[in-house]
Specification:
With 234 residues, this protein is of the alpha/beta class. The chain has 2 domains: 1-73 and 150-234, Rossmann fold, CATH 3.40.50.300; 83-148. It contains 8 helices and 11 strands. The chain has helices at residues 39-47, 89-94, 105-117, 133-147, 163-180, 191-197, 215-220, 224-230, and strands spanning 3-12, 15-23, 28-32, 54-59, 62-63, 74-77, 151-155, 183-187, 200-205, 208-209, 213-214. Strands 1, 2, 3, 4, 5, 6, 7, 8, 9, 10 and 11 form an 11-stranded mixed sheet that branches. Helix 3 crosses helix 4 and helix 4 packs parallel to helix 5 (163-180). The longest helix is centred in the C-terminal third of the chain and has 18 residues, at 163-180. Bound molecules: adenosine-5'-triphosphate. Adenosine-5'-triphosphate binds at residues 12-13, 15, 33, 35-41, 189, 204.
Amino acid sequence: MALRLEQLHLRLGDFTLDADFEVPARARVAVIGPSGAGKSTLLAAIAGFLKPESGRILWEGRDITALPPGKRPLSILFQDNNLFPHLTARQNAALGIRPSLRLSDEEWARVDTALARVGLAGLGDRRPAALSGGQQGRVALARMLLRRRSLMLLDEPFAALGPALKADMLDLVAEIVEAEGMTALLVSHDPEDARRFAPLTVVVAEGRAAPPAPTEALLGNPPPALAAYLGNGA
Ligand SMILES: Nc1ncnc2c1ncn2[C@@H]1O[C@H](COP(=O)(O)OP(=O)(O)OP(=O)(O)O)[C@@H](O)[C@H]1O
């Protein structure tokens, strides 16, 4: 097992969320559920931005509950790509290796390889303003790749893109996660994202994050809390 949430109990004001499950190594998992159900809260706890009230978070058997965010074996991709407007695509990606940007020739070569990998070969000298939304997402993805962390947390990173572009990006992330042997959790409102990206899905609803279940079976025969959320659209 890669990630284990052990009797995790989270609290934000009056809101509480419980989780007690494991995520297999190299899995791609969607995290879906109604707005306000606690999807982002769950990711925040795994990332180390929210201290659990009780319970533990283990990565490959090691207790990481007390580790600060930067020391955890994971990287995060949010919707706002957090690119620096004054830096080029190449420099923004290179932040994944070292924030000082003092990189060896070999490290710059790794940056260029990562940019090529996400389809940005030849665009490295552009600043974010000269890139499309999808291309900016690709820069953020290259930076994430260069961090070389084993767990990828994605919180609706491509929600602002059109459906075709979003599908392309999800396919690219899935391909990278698979090739690099990473484990990925993707928060989304859209069950189609789960179908496209994730063989397993965690449903967050009614104060609980349920253990990962096979996506197709879950969406085909949803439990009541999920059925209410999916409505007739699924
Ligand atoms: N700082 C806070 N203090 C108290 N309650 C909070 C705080 N931040 C969020 N909440 C509450 O925690 C709950 C979970 O929020 P969270 O953002 O995790 O939900 P979500 O499932 O990611 O929602 P969405 O899909 O709309 O992004 C919500 O009911 C929200 O109102």
